[in-house]
Write a structure and sequence with these properties.
Blueprint lengths: L7 H23 L4 H37 L2 H19 L1
Helix pairs in contact: 1-2, 2-3
């Protein structure tokens, strides 16, 4: 089961909200909105996606990684490395 299973509805709600924000951005561009206003909304969408990513990462650490560590062995090290790489990707984005 994915780490977000227990709060899947919340994740989907957040993603639908982001989807609406992106549609709003498209409308703003269609309507030739002021550049700074569009950029402000791009920043808001970016922050919203980052919040979803952090929620997913938290769920992954608390379930998938914690379970693998509990079992031990090479699978645990693989899950830790996988989580570390995910964190690195998030930090770079």
């Amino acid at each position: 089961m994915p780490g977000y299973s227990s709060n899947k509805d919340d994740v989907q709600l957040r993603l639908r909200r982001v989807e609406g924000q992106v549609r709003g951005l498209q409308r703003m561009v269609d309507e030739d909105a002021y550049c700074i206003d569009v950029l402000t909304q791009v920043a808001a969408v970016t922050k919203a996606l980052q919040a979803v990513a952090l929620q997913l990462l938290d769920g992954h650490l608390n379930t998938c990684v914690a379970d693998a560590i509990g079992k031990g062995g090479p699978a645990a090290q693989d899950k830790i490395a996988e989580a570390s790489a995910a964190v690195a990707r998030l930090v770079r984005s």
